[in-house]
Amino acid sequence: MKKFKDYFKIYESEETKAVFEQNEYDANRLSLWVILACAIILVTAWALNFAGIFTVAKIRMNILCLVGLVFFAVPVALYFKFNGKKRWLKYVMVITLLIVCANLFAILNHNVILIMIIPVLLSSRYFSKGFTTMIAILSVVLLSAASIITVLFGIVDLNFYPRLDSGTIITINGTLRDSVLALGVDDARAVVSMIVNGLLPRLLVFTVISFIAVYIAKHGHDMVLEQDEVSRVSASVKAELNTATQIQNSMVPNIFPAFPERKEFDVFAGMYTAKEVGGDFYDFFLVDDKHLAMVMADVSGKGVPAALFMMASKILISDRTLMGGTPAEILQFVNDRICSNNQADMFVTVWLGILEIETGKVIAANAGHEYPAICRKGGKYELLKDKHGFVIGGMEGIRYKDYEFTLNKGDALFLYTDGIPEANNAEQEQFGADRMLDALNIDASGAPEDILANVKREVKSFVGEADQFDDLTMLCLRFNGLD
Questions:
Q1: Mind listing the pLDDT tens digit of every residue in the chain (483 residues)?
Q2: Domain assignment of residue 154, given as a range
């Protein structure tokens, strides 16, 4: 008995209970529409018979149509009484529909054999294999009963009678019986032949359809459970990614003004990842009271692997910078350390500069990164085309070269990753360095945060509806000098 109940049971958790309930309410509404459609068919068949287009005995048609409409009234009334919000309604609605479909089949016989499939297919919408199996079995029983009823009414399809070749369909009733017998037809044999050659093949096809309906019901049920599992896993992953995003954001300076007590310079930076986490990063920190380090980097790849590589690279760069040395020496050390255990074969491009706060002199080294942009006081931003070294993590033993430039009072430095010039619009056109410089020069003398806002706005306007493919990371420093 327990196995029987388990077969009918819909397995649902607290999370999926509401989903299955809503599914059954929606299926009840669908059943209501099917019932109303079948009621229209029933009335139409009665009207056509009344008009003489159908030749069914009028007494039988009147009785069966009236019985069918009474049966239909029950589930319709219950549906509106409970607003379709009872899960047990499916038993009333589908079984009643099945009885009336058998009723209609008994009236019109083989002409409406397809109507018997409707309750089985409809039952699969409830995602209960037990319920669908039950309806399929009842359909076979009622299909057989309806066939026997038609025989009792004297309807014989001679297409299934092997002794005649004409394929004539003769309705056997009191007025035509003598005509059939005059043709030499054994009516009892005709009935058996019709059942064996007509009903059994239909039942065979009906069985195949029933198996399909049961599969659909089970598949629908399992699909809801799988989607719930995927949703829960997705929610868990999303929560973890949100945490990873918070961790990554906390790894870079994000409180501004960063050094409110230092009037010699203003700095502002922003990191806008294409995914929850990304591989770009920036950094700036005081090496000592007289030197400010600035880092702009871009890790190959996207997502979590790039984020992990980013954090390892950032820690190595910042720790080694605090130990002293020129940018070239620092990048050489970091490159050798990363190459010694780079199983993922990832790399990172880095621009590293150290500003001497008292003089404005910057010593920098470039490991395959984008050209920085510099703006002299009263002028416009231009690219500073420095020498590129090899990327960090690409090959062990690489030597990098330092170079120098000086920021005078009122000058500004802009650092960025390739996500800005390589941003694509819907036509696959790149934003490019020229548009970036135009965006910088909208207000070249503006505060660093205004500079970044202008660039971000112009990139967003250019990209339009296209998806952001790469991370956008920027840093702007304005040198105020010593008073």
A1: 555 455 555 666 667 778 888 888 998 999 999 989 888 888 888 888 888 887 677 777 788 788 888 888 999 999 999 998 888 888 899 999 888 888 777 777 666 677 888 898 888 888 888 888 888 888 888 888 877 666 656 555 544 444 444 444 444 444 444 555 555 555 566 566 666 766 777 778 888 888 888 888 888 888 877 887 777 777 776 776 666 666 667 778 888 898 999 999 999 999 887 665 667 889 999 999 999 999 999 988 777 777 788 888 999 999 999 999 999 999 999 999 999 888 888 899 999 999 999 999 999 999 999 999 999 999 999 999 998 999 999 899 999 999 999 999 999 999 999 989 988 888 889 999 999 999 999 999 999 999 999 999 999 999 888 776 667 899 999 999 876
A2: 2-233
Q: For position 424, which CATH number holds?
A: 3.60.40.10
Closest to 191 measured CA to CA, from 209, 210, 171, 211? 171
Do 206 and 259 share a structural domain? no
In total, the chain counts a number of residues equal to 483
C-beta atoms surrounding 403 within 10 Å: 15
0.90 cut: is pTM over it? no
65 dihedral zone (left: phi>0; alpha: psi -120 to 50; beta): alpha
Query: Could you give the 3-state DSSP secondary structure of residue 439?
Result: helix
- Same domain membership, residue 219 and residue 108: yes
Q: Is residue 4 classed as helix, strand or coil in its secondary structure?
A: helix
Query: In angstroms, how far is CA 256 from the centroid of its own chain?
Result: 38
Number of domains in the chain: 2
Are 165 and 136 in a shared domain? yes
Note whether residue 238 is domain-resident.
no
